[in-house]
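User: Could you go from structure to sequence for me? I need the amino acid at each position, not a summary. Structure tokens:
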């Protein structure tokens, strides 16, 4: 009983420690004066409130404190999640302190090279200044990413299955896959702009190409590496070639398929931004290019922040889907 109370008290201290770093950043932002006159914050009307970058920064920090506290309470019921929460508490504390340090050096004192290293309050300011424009470009990027990555996954998995299962397809297609796979997707940009009727379709093609190679390669490797003993067992049970492919080979290749999808996700994001910077009428890459022309690097960092959040969220969804599909591995694979 006493041991249980001690564990609860220790866990509560972990939750408080997690939020302490962000609380330090809030206190620093509130109490430390704005010494440099190179940071100008304008109040923007958001509904019934008037906010500037500093106000939004404090709101975000409070939201992080409350969010991590809520996640800590929820994770306490699961032993594995509780251990993960405790393990990452130090990192979250350091991130909060780092935000305070960047606010101090990048905004309050302006000792970092300017305008290349703005403070967090300045980075958040564009969401107040032109939130609608940022949202429009974010939705454009998401639409472009969705179509490109979806078709890339379908083409990659389909090609990988054909290469891994049929020796004749492997003979003719795999050399082409190896040659084209090492070529950066952006190198195909002139051909894409010439062959396809719109810049959007051209960018979709580039994302498909960059996602196709890792997914197809790893899918084929997973199919090829299926032990013959599993095929023999399926034959004994009366399974034909169709059954062996969909109930033996593809399930065996699933870990490699998801590894390819996760790798392709990073490539797709890189290609997405580069394609938008080189010829798209919208998107986060377009927003970065537009901001860079005017040396508005705080807006560039705002777009990078959105991309980091989106990439993390999409990767989290892929990992959740992988955990569900490969739930049979629990307790077997570390």
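Assistant: Here is the amino acid at each position, in order:
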């Amino acid at each position: 009983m006493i041991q249980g109370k001690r564990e609860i008290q220790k866990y509560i201290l972990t939750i408080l420690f997690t939020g302490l770093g962000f609380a330090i950043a809030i206190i620093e932002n509130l109490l430390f004066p704005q010494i440099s006159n190179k940071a100008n914050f304008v109040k923007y009307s958001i509904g019934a409130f008037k906010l500037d970058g500093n106000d939004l920064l404090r709101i975000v920090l409070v939201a992080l404190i409350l969010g991590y506290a809520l996640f800590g309470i929820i994770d306490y019921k699961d032993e594995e999640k509780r251990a993960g929460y405790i393990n990452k508490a130090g990192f979250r504390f350091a991130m909060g302190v780092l935000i305070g340090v960047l606010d101090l050096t990048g905004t309050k004192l302006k000792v970092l090279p300017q305008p290349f290293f703005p403070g967090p309050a300045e980075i958040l300011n564009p969401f107040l200044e032109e939130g609608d424009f940022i949202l429009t470009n974010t939705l454009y990027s998401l639409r472009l990413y969705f179509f490109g990555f979806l078709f890339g996954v379908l083409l990659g998995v389909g090609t990988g299955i054909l290469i891994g299962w049929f020796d004749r397809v492997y003979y003719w297609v795999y050399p082409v896959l190896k040659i084209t796979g090492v070529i950066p997707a952006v190198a195909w940009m002139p051909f894409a702009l010439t062959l396809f009727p719109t810049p959007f379709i051209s960018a979709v093609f580039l994302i498909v190409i960059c996602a196709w190679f890792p997914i197809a390669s790893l899918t084929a490797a997973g199919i090829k590496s299926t032990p013959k003993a599993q095929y023999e067992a399926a034959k004994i049970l009366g399974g034909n070639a169709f059954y062996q492919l969909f109930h033996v080979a593809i399930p065996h290749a699933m870990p490699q398929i998801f590894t390819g999808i996760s790798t392709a996700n990073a490539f797709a994001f890189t290609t997405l931004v580069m394609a938008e910077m080189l010829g798209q009428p919208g998107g986060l890459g377009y927003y970065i290019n537009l901001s860079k022309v005017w040396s508005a690097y705080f807006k560039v960092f705002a777009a990078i922040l959105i991309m980091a959040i989106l990439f993390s969220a999409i990767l989290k969804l892929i990992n959740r889907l992988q955990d569900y599909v490969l739930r049979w591995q629990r307790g077997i694979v570390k």
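One structural detail worth keeping in mind: The mean pLDDT is 88.
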